[in-house]
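User: Can you write out an input/output pair for a complex, sequences first and structure second?

Assistant: Here is one pair. Inputs:
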Amino acid sequence: MPYMQSSRKKLFLVRKLSKGVYIIGSGEAKYGELWDRSLREIAVEAGLKAVESAGIRTKDLGAIYMGNSLGGDISMQEHLSALMSDHAGIASEFVPSVRVEASTASGAAAFREAYLGIKSGEYEIAMVGGAEKMTELYGSEIIDITSSIIDREWEAFTGATPAALAAISARKYMADFNVPREILAHISVNDHANASLNENAHFRNKISLEQALNATPIAEPLNLMDCAPLSDGASSLILASENYVKEHGIEGVKIMGSAMSQGEFALHSRKSLYTVEPTRIAAETALKQAGIGIKDISMVEIHDSYSIYGLMALEDLGFAKKGNAREIVENGIGIDGNLPVNPSGGLKAKGFPYGASGVGQIVEAYNQLKNKAGKRQVKNARYAMTHSQAGSGAASIVHILGVE
Amino acid sequence: MGELSRMWREMPSRYRMEGRKCENCSRVYFPPRDICPVCHRDSIGKMKPVDIAGNGEIISYTVVHETPPAFIRQKPYVLAIIKLDEGPMITGQIVDSEPEEIKMGSRVKSVFRRISEDGKSGVIHYGYKFTLDK
Ligand SMILES: [Zn+2]
């Protein structure tokens, strides 16, 4: 029966390709306003820490993927992958390296490329780095440069900024679902509380609801405390194949789901001002790959570059129906809450170095699942979800990590 | 805010709101698109210029306080997403009104205005903004 033969052959091929990919090490340079440190310094620090934590040598690396969003505009430095590789002393090993760019989701995109590189069978070990230096410029020039993550010709040209677009989504959301500003503010208050326990975080101070509600307006109804800061920072991870992990008896964290989805670029082109369809699709796909349901998730790192995006993400990821994220917030999003959200401190308080954040979220998930998160350890963490969003929601990347 | 060619290339759309109409499905696009996202390859060569009247309704808005350098002299300003009567939604400023007068659902019409300036001696960019249609 020729049909059976061919289908059996296909089955074999699928099984061979579907070998698992594991995270085996992580490293970070502290996030913050690092006036005395350069882009290359922080990128190298995070990378070498990750190599050390994985117990490998740089010569073991099959490939390097660097996430970086605005290095060309801010630091006038492109080709960050080469810079990092050389200054980490890896150049003499001639390891292939590439920079991956997907605006504020660059880090998660680099991670996904590394995952695919190993899953394809091409590499046994890969390094992922994410690095960004946001504080290199003075004054409002940085607002023009960060506006390159939105449509330059038809959004930024008219005076739109990333914050302004988030504010437009926020006003519509608050009106349609009768949600008060307090619910948005809770996202930031929670981030600061968690970051106070994270020594790598940009902000270590807790903030009260009153402080969050009464800060300087940025783009109404959003104020300074609704907006993630401009941070420098770098994060890194080492990924390895199932073969490698088994051969060396390493207890890695498995990447159970990895999905990216891309929708319309400009906010005005989307059907809804407060639904990020790519988030919904990526989450659904990643959960299906992992073979688990949204209720199985022990903790989530969400892309709350603006507080409103935190609420939208909780809904689009599937934790609540559209307009109902307030229920999740009210049921507790703290480290001991019903659904621990952003134990790292999130983009608002751990900090928001564009190309690093997506990697940093996965560093947090990895440490939580390894039970190495110290004072901010989520109890019985088994499955972690991470969500990274590009710009105002043009694209989203969702990962699910787990321990057996 | 970039080179001069980037500005004059878009002049028909910025100055008199020229959009595109897909002659395969009759949908209107503004900002202009070269391919209809509904008809895909069936729209190739069928995206024809169409004038947008510039009337519409505010879907949502914000008052912007933190601005890029080219907009500092205008702050704070109202930025909105407007649904045009022809169908598409676009982003633009609402001028000549106090923020308190602006509501979601307010009717607006387009006006030709100065958009931004590249410093004291740089290029001045012009294009559409909107005023309340009282
Ligand atoms: Zn069409």
